[in-house]
Input
Amino acid sequence: MMWLRDDTMIYFSLAICLILMIFLSFAIYGLWVNYIHDKMIRGFLFPGTMVHELSHAFVCLITGTTITELNLFTTDSAGIKYDKPKIPVLFDFAIAAAPLFGCAYVIFFTSKMLGNPIHLDDTFPKEIHFTLKGFFDLFQHLLDTVWSTFNSFKKQLHLKDVRHILFLVTLIIFAISIAPHKQDIKYLVLGFTIISLILFFLDKAGISLLKYGWWKHFIRELWLLATIIIAVLTTLLSVTLTIMGFIKAYRLTFGQKSARK
Output
């Protein structure tokens, strides 16, 4: 895998991808719940909601954080409440980030169970310099990768194949279910930024985790998942906003005519 050679900038790439996933899923979930039938949307996303809340609960148990309320089986009030973590900020980030990795794992596991129905390119630039131009190159590569992922997904998707339908539905449900609670966003953005900086400077100091096979594999799979999730979320957000625009235009146009009559 040539894309991992001397590529400490991969950490910034992943941080940006994860933060994009957070904001995109948050935006789509908010639009769907507010502008489409609330119970219908919550029912459709129910499997993802369960994984989301159980992920929170799992990390609460690991960190010794007391869970005061856990509601999973009612679509209108599913959620978790917990006491202040023993180590503020750090454990707050871990608990807040848990659904992102929980939902991503379900997508990964489903893909493996279905025999990887969609095959994507996992290449990454051999070298991106830690300069202003390097960061612009990084954003350009991220955009190109997401667009390439979208095109690959579109070309390989066959709606007549049950495996592809199951994978697409799973992808949509669990990608949107990543959406964090509003109060968790600050911990997630700060946490992923700090982690990427720590890993970057460790690598520059000669302490590279990329030399370990398990870490390379983890980074590669996370990169693939992040790009496909962003491609799907971007598409869903674009379609949602387009439909909302047409509906509002229709109401403004024909609503005014009806009012004049």
